[in-house]
Amino acid sequence: MIADVSSGHGSHVALDEPGANGNSIRRSYDLNGVTLAVAAAEERPAAFLDPILAPLSCATPSACDWIASMSATATIEPPSSGRQIFEGPLPEGLHSVMVKDGDERVLVVPGHFAMSFRRTARTTEIRFVPGKEGGLSGTAAFWMLDELLAAHGRHLLHGALLVDPATERSIAVFAPSGTGKTTTALALARAGFCLAGDDALVLDTGEDGFGLWAIPRKIKVHRKTAALLPWLVPILTDEWTSDEQAFELGALSSLVRIAAPRRRQVELVIALMPPNEKGHAVTAIAKPEALAAIACDNLRIAPDGVDADNAATLAAVARFIATTPVVALSVGPDPGSLSRALIGLS
Fold first, then answer.
1. N or C: fewer beta carbons within 10 Å in the chain?
2. % helix / strand / coil in the chain, to the nearest 5?
3. Cis peptide before 18 (omega within 30 of 0)
4. In angstroms, what CA-CA distances link 283 with 94, 290, 336?
5. How far is 36 from 270, CA to CA, in rounded Å?
């Protein structure tokens, strides 16, 4: 399956389909210039990235930038070697441990699955217990994306992304989870912008400067968001899970315009401040203050400090903020009245 590997940011993994151990390339994705292939013996586990990457699926190339190879196993035990760099529950509630051993990082969810990241080989080896691989599509998938994007000088960030149809440039909204980011992004989309995503975006640097694109995962609408934006009613059901409903971005296409998940230059960064009861407030914000807010929500600190990838992300975000217009937005009691003019766009 892996015919040749070369090192460096420009390396590719040559593919030979079908592969060893009965695996074949069953899914391929073009992450705006970084190709990822998933090899598995069966269709179901191979599709674990579809919930977040399906719109980026592509025909399998002759060579790709990264390959995830999957195999079933009877059990997954806690790691017995390596330096621990993380331990704790994933947001999905599964207990996990990440260790580093040489150039390899291993994320282990005992009893469920293990992911081994080998950057020099541009591979992720995934072992899973059949019937318990569901958690792969959540945080673990984003950890893998973070690893392969970092290997290619790109940075996975937490934020919402809109596209200005007048300029075809991106507008990023940064805020911690639970502070109104999705509500604000939906309200701005209803005001005439195009919605690209509400949770995860990718920052890179090209010949044209900084660019952003959103991971096209499902959007989660909270009960509070639904109450503030009654125009969402046509797509809502009576089924709520933890006061949320999840929708494919396409399900919103009758209500707002949806942007294709492709890279675009950046027009504006919005640093979302806590909401207020008086009315929308758009104010200037010092670049160091904006950087601090974004970094606090995106920088992971291991027990022994900030690793090289996070340091590179911080440096990239600092350059990005320094060269991009930034405003602070505090949303008032009626998010539905947000407008293009309010955020300073004519």
1. C
2. 25, 35, 40
3. yes
4. 40, 12, 19
5. 31
β 169-174/264-272 pair status: parallel
Residue 239 is classified by DSSP as: -
Element holding 40 (H helix, E strand):
strand 35-40
Residue 235, Cβ neighbours under 10 Å: how many?
15
Cα distances (angstroms) measured from residue 269 to each of 7, 131, 307, 328: 35, 42, 26, 9
- What the block records as the tokens of 131 is 């019937």
Burial of 60 (0-12, 13-18, 19+ CB in 10 A): middle
Q: What is the DSSP letter of 135?
A: G
% of the chain surpassing 70 pLDDT: 92
Q: What predicted TM-score, i.e. pTM, was given to this entire model?
A: 0.90
- Greater confidence (17 vs 45) lies with 45
- Strand 13-15 and strand 24-30: the pairing is unpaired
Question: Residues 212, 213, 218, 219: is their CA dihedral positive or negative?
Answer: positive
The answer to whether residue 12 scores a pLDDT higher than 80 is no
According to DSSP, the residues that pair with 328 across neighbouring strands are 271, 283
What domains are defined for the chain? 2-152 (no CATH), 156-343 (3.40.50)
